[in-house]
């Protein structure tokens, strides 16, 4: 419904992006990866380092999402700033995760490496166009 003439337009606010692995489910994700990769006792030191970085990343992203949700009445510029902060947090966390994963990957057997390759290749976390579509908010009519 269009706002009455002379009244301010209703703000259009998009919901916060959902992390690929929210902090509440990171342990389930870690356990699933451990099981699917068949991590051995000899690989536990590398696995533990990788899992710890994943936990830290989930906590860091959770903080960025909470900061965004703390201000539901933000304007469009602030909205874009918070998306930028979330994207920067994700990039920072990936930079931390890569060396831990490289160390783990190097310790894997060829069969485990193949399993990791398939798991990561088939993951939609790095393919933005596969994300669930969001409902579009109605824009106010253009000022005329």
Written account of the structure:
Helix 1 runs antiparallel to helix 2 (about 45-70) and helix 2 (about 45-70) runs antiparallel to helix 3 (about 75-105). Residues about 5-20 and about 125-135 have low confidence and may be disordered. The protein has a domain at about 45-120. Helices cover about 55% and strands about 0% of the residues. The protein starts with about 25 loop residues before the first helix and ends in a 23-residue tail after the last helix. It has helices at about 25-35, 45-70, 75-105, 110-120. It is elongated. With about 140 residues, the chain is mainly α.
- Uncertain ranges: 7-21, 126-134
Q: How much strand?
A: under 5%
Radius of gyration: 20 Å
Number of helices: 4
Alpha carbon gap, first and last residue: 17 Å
Strand count, sense and closure of the main sheet? none
Mean pLDDT over all positions:
79
Helical content band: 55-70%
The number of E-state strands comes to: 0
Produce a short descriptive summary.
The chain is mostly helical and 144 residues long. The chain has helices at 26-37, 44-69, 76-107, 110-121. The protein has a domain at 46-121.
Write the layout of secondary structure elements.
Layout: H1 26-37, H2 44-69, H3 76-107, H4 110-121
Features:
57% helix, 144 residues
């Amino acid at each position: 419904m269009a706002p009455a003439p002379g009244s301010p337009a209703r703000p259009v606010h998009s919901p916060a992006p959902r992390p690929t692995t929210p902090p509440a489910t990171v342990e389930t994700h870690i356990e699933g990866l451990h099981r699917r990769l068949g991590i051995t006792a000899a690989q536990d030191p590398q696995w533990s380092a990788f899992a710890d970085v994943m936990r830290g990343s989930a906590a860091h992203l959770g903080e960025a999402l909470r900061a965004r949700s703390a201000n539901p009445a933000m304007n469009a510029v602030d909205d874009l700033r918070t998306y930028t902060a979330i994207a920067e947090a994700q990039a920072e966390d990936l930079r931390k995760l890569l060396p831990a994963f490289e160390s783990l990957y190097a310790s894997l057997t060829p069969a485990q490496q193949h399993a990791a390759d398939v798991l990561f290749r088939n993951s939609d976390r790095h393919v933005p166009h596969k994300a669930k579509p969001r409902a579009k908010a109605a824009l106010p009519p253009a000022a005329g």
